Amino acid sequence: MNIGIIGGGSIGLLFAAYLSDTYETTLYTRTKKQADVLMELGLTLKRDGFTMIKRVKVVPISEGITYHNLLFIAVKQYQMEDVFPIIQDREMPLVFLQNGFTHIKMMKEAVSKEIYVGVVEHGALKQGNTTVEHTGIGVTRIAVYSGNLDDFPLYHEEVGTFPFIAEKDYQEMLLKKLLVNAMINPLTAILKVENGDLIENPHFYSLFKKYFEELSNIFELENREHIFCHIEQVCLATSKNRSSMLKDIESGRRTEIDAITGHIMEIAIERGKPYEMTAFIYSLVKGMESRESE
């Protein structure tokens, strides 16, 4: 099987490192510089104190993409505006791995009749252009947007310690992920703390619980206690991790605040729900984002 992966960030590098062990894999990067250095030095995967060099075919996306039996789109939500026109008319199975819901609107315009949505629960840290550290072993959850769930080929394959799990409802799956992202990413970025501090610090935990109340009201959650426990467990399981939004702020990069918290504000307005904390959190991160990029 021939697999393509668009995106040379932490998730794209992680997928390429693991899937290339079993399948013919091509990684598409935004820059020629990254493609050249990966082809020269190889892709370095770090995990549990071990270091492995993977040899993967790497191509700048500006040179175009070829047909693949499965094409993963592993770029951030705000990068989809540049990437989607490249894949919009391609008739091949597509897997979108973005946070939030904004990409769902784009998927409606895709020609492909076989489209999947994925949620990545692995921890990954990119170190330079050629190295990714697997900081947390997890799973990738896959749900079908169009087509047949049973046709997703990696359900039926053994991919070592990199499993894919089927989910029946992509909207429910993405909502659960959105709530996790909304509760952890902006708060850790604003407070400049590791994930576990949101639970372990009593003052932060009070804020954490208060914000969940607002989100529960916006989305009219039925099983609130179960969902809150799930978010708590994610915090504790990744207690020493620094969220992607915190790392983006620290590095002066654009964050995904619009795709996460901005999307929640839109939902709240549509439903006539109060969203004072959400708006406050959004403004704080946007202010930090603009300050750090100066």
Structural commentary:
This protein has 11 helices and 12 strands. It has helices at 10-19, 32-41, 80-87, 102-107, 170-191, 197-200, 202-219, 224-237, 244-250, 257-271, 276-292, and strands at 2-6, 24-29, 43-47, 50-54, 57-60, 70-73, 94-96, 115-120, 123-127, 131-136, 140-146, 164-166. The chain has an 8-stranded mixed beta sheet with strand order 5-2-1-6-7-8-11-12. The protein has a 4-stranded mixed beta sheet with strand order 4-3-10-9. The termini are far apart. The model has no long low-confidence stretch (mean pLDDT 93).
Number of strands: 12
**CATH homologous superfamily of the largest domain - what is it?**
NAD(P)-binding Rossmann-like Domain
Low-confidence stretches: none
> N-to-C SSE series?
EHEHEEEEHEHEEEEEHHHHHHH
Choose one word for the global shape.
globular
From the alpha-carbon coordinates, what is the Rg to the nearest angstrom? 19 Å
Structural class: alpha/beta
CATH topology description of the largest domain:
Rossmann fold
Give helix % range.
40-55%
CATH architectural label of the largest domain: 3-Layer(aba) Sandwich
InterPro entries: 6-PGluconate_DH-like_C_sf, 6PGD_dom2, ApbA, Ketopantoate_reductase, KPA_reductase, KPR_N, NAD(P)-bd_dom_sf
GO molecular function, one term: 2-dehydropantoate 2-reductase activity
Keywords: NADP, Oxidoreductase, Pantothenate biosynthesis
Catalytic activity: (R)-pantoate + NADP(+) = 2-dehydropantoate + NADPH + H(+)
